[in-house]
Design goal:
One of its GO terms (biological process) is triglyceride biosynthetic process. The chain is of the alpha/beta class. The chain starts with a strand and ends in a 12-residue tail after the last helix.
């Protein structure tokens, strides 16, 4: 008889070293009769807590407090045994509302060796059925965080998110399914375990989504549960889903059945090589900025430490267990594929390009066309076990694909999670690091008395602040601007073109790209409601009145402001008493020459049809009455690179609108302030174009020589303001 375990687990177990870790597991028989009785202590293995409470007659006994749970009511095991409503009062004290900027997500501190070491302890036979556990490393989640249920692959251990526990634990209540080594629960039985937990969570919090993260076999399980529960708000994260198992070119099952018992000890090393990229696994905790020699030393150390641990795979999946689970996988894939049409949940498929076990990339294409609401991201250099490999932070991917929400509808303002330290390093060291090195931005600001100074001392720390500026060619200045403000502990929320968030753009995006990183760094679609929400929450907001037309300007229009004639942001800023900060930026002509603009490209056959097609699918932010700035011509200009010069930013004198709301209701006053902001931006551009001629380090050659002799310094100096 199979027992179903639904979790009643606090995600905060064993946080304080002085308290005994506590978590409870409710046992319930699938086939009727008495519930299974379990008896063991709560244990903690490598930061993972396991339930070892005793349950009898359907009541859950918490070994840490002497309380029992019956019919979702806490029974105080103290003096009177009085009944108490099952309220999560602990949540009010334990959770917090906001994450600090550049918070520590722990990514890059764990490797696959930590997974293997943890698995070695967890797989010790206890005779129990499948169960949920909450990793202690996950810590305290944000207030109103959704539940995330991790469904493992063939290993069944449940530690597949070991590299991601700390990061995910801030955004979710993380629970992981553990399938013991010698458990033989059928696929239908496992599906019912997950389904019951999903329904209990939905009944408890009907307005929150429930996340199912399924890896390989677990992805089949997630799809099956979603197909059976179309009315529950589920978000599926499918990692190399094994729905393609029938098309696998690796005949594991026949090989295993024919493999002599004496050679089975060699099999883990073969499986380890096939399922993942050993180099990427060993690089998971290596700093990108380390010199090559130190990187190689760390890589060598990680590989030599990892290889002896691989032998534990033969204990995690003995031959008999692996044969059973491969048969289980076959039935799971068939079940999931037969019910794809019934899946209503939104899904995100993460597919590896170097998956030696499954045709994951082709399967991602198939699932995207089969599922009604599906996004896909490809990771061409990763293997089958991508969650264990370097350079893939699961929380970052969820944020960058706009899949993180805490209620029925996505709100990019209230659901935003600030970038972490590891995201900052990855975005600005690995993704745009060479571009930053080439452009070496120099920033200046203006104090209240009108004095121009180096750095951002003239920028108000407290919001709301509305940055209004010139949009450089292709928006190249954005990455430097956001990075420099993050260094000053200021989160700048950019309002971007809605097409970056549209389904049409999503169809063009397959890899995790710069557009995804923009969303990780706080970009939202430019709409009045989003601007309203951002200013009402006292944010620092980046707005370009020239928008797309200014960023995709034509030849001869460099540093020309292409703004609407009518003011669009003044009254909104005054409504919240926001400080308007005009700024100028120059440097596009120092890194590239615009060789082909819109008019040139429209003369080229095939390309002109592609541009017309993009225009037809694009969103219109402004109507044609706004003039030239309302243009929706989308194209990628042809650029001729130059020996890189430098980017310069000048933030003008802050313009305070607090107390001016009534005055700016007058259209004439509103127009005057609008024109004043515009003139300040033009003056800033003119100032920078003139002063950059005085910069001794404007050329990358001069900056390279400077760095060679002054490497300890944080930056390269520029002209004196």
């Amino acid at each position: 008889m199979t027992s179903v375990f639904s979790c009643s687990i606090s995600p905060y177990v064993a946080l304080n070293s002085g308290n005994k870790p506590r978590c409870g597991v409710r046992a319930q028989s699938l086939g009727g009769g008495d519930s299974t009785v379990l008896s063991s202590d709560v244990i903690v293995v490598n930061g993972i807590s396991f339930a070892g409470t005793k349950e009898k007659n359907g009541a859950l006994i918490d070994g840490g407090s002497g309380e029992k749970v019956k019919n979702d009511t806490l029974i105080d095991g103290g003096k009177n045994g009085s009944l108490k409503p099952r309220e999560k009062k602990w949540a009010k004290d334990a959770v917090f509302k906001d994450l600090e900027l550049l918070w520590d997500d722990g990514y890059g501190t764990k490797t696959v060796k930590d997974y293997l070491d943890g698995a070695k302890e967890i797989i010790k036979p206890d005779g129990g059925p499948p169960r949920w556990f909450c990793p202690v490393e996950c810590g305290k989640p944000l207030q109103d965080s959704p539940v995330l249920l991790f469904l493992p692959g063939l290993d069944g251990v449940g530690l597949g998110l070991a590299l991601h526990h700390k990061a995910l634990g801030k955004a979710f209540e993380v629970r992981c399914l553990h399938i013991p080594v010698y458990d033989r629960t059928s696929f239908e039985g496992l599906m019912k375990i997950v389904e019951e937990t999903v329904r209990l969570e939905h009944d408890s919090s009907p307005n929150k989504p429930i996340y199912l993260v399924g890896e390989s076999f677990g992805a089949c399980l997630a799809l099956a549960v979603a197909a059976r529960n179309p009315k529950i708000d589920l978000v599926l994260i499918l990692v190399n889903p094994a729905t393609s198992f029938s098309r696998s070119q690796l005949p594991l099952l026949p090989i295993l059945e024919a493999l002599p018992d004496g050679l089975h000890d060699v099999f883990p090393y073969l499986v380890g090589f096939v399922t993942g990229n050993p180099l990427k696994m060993a690089m998971a905790n290596i700093e990108y900025k380390l010199p090559p020699r130190l990187q190689f030393q760390q890589l060598y150390h990680n590989l030599t430490a990892l290889l002896p641990s691989v032998s534990v795979l033969s204990d995690i999946i003995p031959k008999e267990t692996l044969i059973w689970r491969l048969k289980l996988l076959k039935s799971a894939a068939a079940y999931a594929n037969s019910r794809l049409h019934a899946v209503k949940a939104e899904a995100l498929v993460l597919a590896s390009g170097n998956d030696n076990m499954l045709p994951s990339k082709d399967e991602a294409y198939r699932l995207k066309s089969s599922l009604k609401n599906c996004k896909v991201r490809y990771f061409n250099d990763n293997g089958h076990s991508m969650l264990m490999e370097h350079g893939l932070n699961l929380l970052t991917i969820i944020k960058g694909t706009c899949k993180y929400r805490r209620s029925k509808r996505l709100d990019l303002v209230s659901d935003f999670l600030p970038p972490s330290k590891s995201e900052f390093k990855c975005a600005f060291d690995e993704v745009t690091g060479l571009f930053r090195l080439a452009t070496c931005p120099a920033l200046f600001s203006t104090l209240d008395d009108g004095k121009i100074v180096k750095g951002l001392a003239g920028v108000p720390d407290e919001g709301p602040v509305l940055f209004i500026g010139y949009h450089m060619l292709m928006g190249l200045e954005i990455y430097s601007l956001v990075e420099e403000f993050l260094k000053e502990n200021i989160m700048v929320r950019g309002v971007a073109h809605p097409d970056l968030f549209s389904k049409n753009f999503e169809d063009l995006a397959t890899d995790f790209s710069l557009s995804d990183w923009m969303k990780v760094m706080g970009a939202v679609p430019v709409t009045p409601s989003n601007l309203f929400k951002l200013l009402s929450t006292k944010s620092h907001v980046l707005l370009y009145p020239g928008g797309q037309r200014e960023a995709l300007h034509y030849k001869g229009e460099a540093y020309k402001l292409i703004w609407p004639d009518q003011p669009e942001f003044v009254r909104m800023a005054a409504r919240f008493g926001a400080t308007i900060l005009p700024f100028g930026t120059v440097g596009e002509d120092d890194i590239a020459e615009l060789a082909l603009d819109y008019h040139d490209l429209m003369k080229i056959p095939i390309l002109n049809d592609f541009i017309r097609d993009l225009k037809g699918k694009g969103s219109r932010v402004r109507d044609e009455s706004k003039g030239e700035v309302a243009s929706t011509d989308l194209f990628i200009p042809g650029l001729l690179p130059k020996v890189p010069g430098r980017f310069y930013f000048l933030f003008g004198k802050p313009i305070k609108t607090k107390g001016m709301k009534e005055m700016l209701e007058d259209k004439e006053n509103e127009s005057q302030l609008y024109l004043h902001v515009k003139s300040e931006v033009q003056n800033s551009i003119a100032y920078l174009l003139k002063k950059r001629e005085e910069d001794p380090y404007r050329s990358i050659i001069d900056r390279t020589i400077y760095r060679a002799f002054n490497s300890p310094l944080p930056g390269v100096p520029a002209f004196d303001p």
